[in-house]
Amino acid sequence: MVATWQVDTTIFQNNIRQVVGNQKIMAVVKNNAYNYGLEFAVRQFLEAGIEAFSTTSLDEAIKVKRITPNAVVFLMNATTHFEKLRQYGIHMTLPSLLFYHRYSDELYDIHVHIEYENLLHRSGFKSLDEIKHVLNEHSDNQNSKMKITGLWTHFGYADEFECSEYETERYDWLNIVESLYEEGYRFEMIHSQNSASYFREGHLLERHTHARVGIALYGSRPYSNLERDAISQSLVLKANVIQVRTVHKGEHCGYSFAYTAVQNNTKLAVVDIGYGDGILRSRSKHEVMINERIYPIRALMMSHMFVEVDEYVSPGDEVIIYNETLRIDDYTFKGVGANSEQLSALNLDSLKKEYLS
After folding, report:
1. Active-site residue set
2. Count of CB atoms within 10 A of residue 45's CB?
3. Measured distance CA(336)–CA(220) in Å, rounded
4. CB neighbour list of residue 207: distance below 8 Å, 6 or more residues apart
5. How far is the first Cα of the chain from the last one, in angstroms, to the nearest whole number?
6. Residues ≥6 apart with Cβ < 8 Å to 66
7. Which pLDDT does position 139 carry in this prediction?
8. Which residues contact 64 (CB under 8 A, 6 or more apart)?
9. Can you say how many angstroms the Cα of residue 19 is from the centroid of all Cα atoms in its chain?
């Protein structure tokens, strides 16, 4: 018996189409497409009509280009491997005025998207004046030069509803977009919206060409008050009961007093999955499903967990950690960790991986 990571391809594809609707989407495929598998995800997105992709890894960007040479592939982290960018036609962020001044001569023939820093403060130009400085200098340059193709930012607070930061970052960004438009600047691509902003707005922001969507395409809601049926989870993570042990009040189970039985004749199922397979310790504070019944996890080890069960559980039974009932986003909202944190933790080297048609 082996713990299994399993995706229903039909549900995955239907979810993509539901999320996309009639909008133009740039699919985020970073970190092995949120652990769903880069090639699998890209081909699924292509089937749904998505023709633009973004990632933070140059190696991943090259892999996407090899799968779909005609797609736009946008690298959100800057690199100095300029020859590879030119060779594969990969678009890249222009992350700062300093980067531009340092490498402007080496960026010739490369498609760049000028990045605005906004409230995230992770990367980007700090002001409209800095952006216009590059645009004007670029316009005056008659020599071989980079191709300014896009304008972008990232909203760091779109999934926060108890503060005003999203409204602030949205307002500042749209002012920049509109100011540049009024002064005659045009871009082939303008993108800023992550999953949370995309669903909050219900459409593309004004003058935008794409929403840059990640987690929603992989089946998780970006915020808790989004209707449950707006997004469908195709992923099932399951393991197996390998033994059922009986312990008594005061007996300790697992390493270093991980769990102490509080009553006699406590039944503990030993399950073949643990933190070495990517189960977060915060997830182990919650429950699993066995035979359609919910049972609490009592202790987590590297390759196993203890689950307190009853007479309805036997060795060989299937144990569900995630499915459409026990959704990843449900545990995000319970404080286990971000959707992407739970997904990226899963160790696909130790889990059996299955795609169901």
Report:
1. 30, 255
2. 26
3. 14
4. 177, 178, 181, 190
5. 22
6. none
7. 84
8. 29, 38, 42, 53, 55, 71, 73
9. 14
- Residue 29, CA atoms < 13 Å, CB-side half-sphere: 31
Q: What is the pTM of this model?
A: 0.95
Residue 52 carries which DSSP code?
Answer: E
Residues 6+ apart with CB under 8 A from 77: 56, 57, 58, 93, 95, 123
> Are residues 1 and 240 in contact, defined by beta-carbon separation less than 8 angstroms?
yes
Q: Which residue has the tokens 């100011």?
A: 179
For the chain, 357 residues long, the average pLDDT of each consecutive 10-residue run is: 96 98 97 97 98 98 98 98 98 97 95 96 95 92 87 96 96 98 97 98 97 98 96 98 96 91 96 98 97 98 97 98 98 97 95 96
Backbone φ and ψ of 254, nearest 5°: 85, 180
Q: Position 296: which residue type?
A: P
Please give the structure tokens belonging to residue 67: 């799968």
Q: Which residues contact 167 (CB under 8 A, 6 or more apart)?
A: none
Say what the pLDDT of residue 141 is. Answer: 78
Per-residue pLDDT, 89: 98
Rounded Cα gap, residues 123 and 254, in angstroms? 45
**Chain position carrying tokens 């997105």:** 45
Q: Which of 263, 323, 258 is nearest to 297 (CA)?
A: 258
Sheet with 91-94: strands ordered across = 189-191, 147-152, 111-115, 91-94, 72-75, 52-55, 25-28, 211-213
